[in-house]
Design brief:
Layout (H helix, E strand, L loop, with lengths): L1 E2 L5 E2 L5 E2 L8 E7 L5 H12 L1 H6 L2 E7 L11 E3 L2 H6 L6 E6 L3 E6 L10 H13 L4
Parallel strand pairs: 4-5, 5-6
Antiparallel strand pairs: 1-8, 2-3, 2-6, 4-7, 7-8
Length: 135
């Protein structure tokens, strides 16, 4: 189990933010290409449609964009540079689920052949974390 360092991201208006592991049962990161990638915009939109369901299970979801802008109709933060290199281990896109202690508990890397997971699949993992005994 790998513990992740809380690294900085930039909001669309330039504010620097860091994830707060302890504030949520789980934190979900959806790492995407830049805003010009049509497939990534679709992935973002699918996950944004599930945002309320993630919040109901006390999970914070971050769509992380590479590049300089967040596409219209999508939400998220811009990568400052280190998280993708440190957390995804060579992949450029993927989905990570991190528990309240900053431990990476699940990851999906599309280059492994399975593609992006569905939001429902990721939410299922969040529910498992939520129902575990905190000890």
């Amino acid at each position: 189990m790998k513990r992740l360092e809380a690294l900085a991201f930039k909001t669309g208006d330039g504010k620097i933010v860091k994830p707060n592991w302890q504030g949520f049962v789980a934190t979900v990161f959806v790492f995407l290409h830049d805003g010009d990638c049509l497939a990534c915009r679709r992935v973002c939109q699918r996950f944004m449609e599930w945002q309320n369901e993630f919040a109901e299970w006390d999970a914070k979801m971050w769509c992380v964009w590479r590049g300089s802008f967040i596409p219209e109709g999508c939400q998220g933060v811009l990568e400052v540079g280190k998280a993708r290199r440190k957390w995804i281990e060579g992949d450029s896109v993927g989905v990570l689920v991190v528990d309240r202690y900053g431990v990476l508990v699940e990851q999906w890397l599309p280059t492994s052949g399975s593609g992006f997971p569905s939001p429902g699949e990721v939410l299922s993992r969040v529910k498992q974390i939520s129902l575990q005994c905190p000890e």
